[in-house]
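Q: I have 402 residues here and want to know how they pack in 3D. Can you give me a structure?
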Amino acid sequence: MYIVEINAVPYGSTGKIMFGIADVAQKSGNVCKCVHGFSWHKNKSQGSYIVSGFISKSLHMLAARISGWNGSFSVISTYRFIRKLKKLSPDIIHLHNIHGWYLNIPMLFRFIKKSNIPVVWTLHDCWAFTGHCPHFVMKQCNQWKTQCDHCSLYKEYPQSLFDNAKKMFQYKKKHFTGVKNLTIVTPSRWLADLVNQSFLKEYPVKIIHNGIDLNTFQPTEGSFRERYAIAPDKHIVLGVALDWGKRKGLDVFAALSKRLDARYQIVLVGTDEKIDEQLPENILTIHRTHSGKELAEIYTAADVFVNPTREDNFPTVNIESIACGTPVITFRTGGSPEMLDETCGSVVDCDNIDAMEQEIIRVCKDKPYTNTDCLRRAADFDQNNKFREYIELYENIGASHD
């Protein structure tokens, strides 16, 4: 098979997934071309195709912000890309994030509908079926089920000067529906349920959970406690995120730091100087780690990993933690609880800080979740196995298309 994978960027979780699938596909005897928009990040694949350049992406971003029409520009670069697609004549087109100011949506979907090439579309957020936002849980908004209008999030990603949610909802519905051979993949049951309530419900939905590299994330002894002078009898309460804020529960850790006594040390990874200013001094912050091994050492040193996320599809930090033998406590929101079972962690109601505090104390004191059980559960999320599920999906779709 010849597979073309398309994603907004060549980095981050979605970029890793795209390149990971491509690697497994090629090792299985297939040909795979990765496609993405312009980025300053170092390209991880020498054979990938960059849809738009810096100027094209910048103009697209500016025009979208002024007009509120996301995915309506990059005409020339999209035309060139479609010409490239025609020459490649792929057996499967795999879409990931198509938002990100690099593709013209009407042009791409007209080509898809006309060519009748089978399409797999992995949704990493909710953007595909809303009038604007990729996440709406914190706003408790259900307009996406019928018709988005008067959006309160239009100034957030993808930022716009005007509320154009009503027209964008109709715009997406027009172009994203009516594809003859399209399969939607979601990383969580939670997102699959939302898709089945949206205008995308006409398509079959398959759940393929995100996976992690179990060769990197495994119990890894190190000198973390010694480096940061954390006493051996102190319980490390760990949080890890790339974009700390209310959505990731930064305020929850601030509140916990006032509730938990001196026997507990909260450690947050992925902060910066601005975030540090919002936190009490008794929270230890680490701006960045230099390798996956270093992060695995921190997970391993922790007594419990706490994820008070309020909006998330399927956060792999939970899996990374149990893969290092450390149990997880998370809010009951989005897909965050889905990788946990009774052997490796617990779930409390969203925003119930009292329950979160009590559960932290219980886990650290009673140690109800063993290292062995955590590792056994983590084995279900080996990224290579998850990538192979995509290859099996391609083969099934290709066989049915023939």
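Q: Anything worth noting?
A: The CA atoms of residues 244 and 250 lie 6 Å apart. The mean pLDDT is 96.
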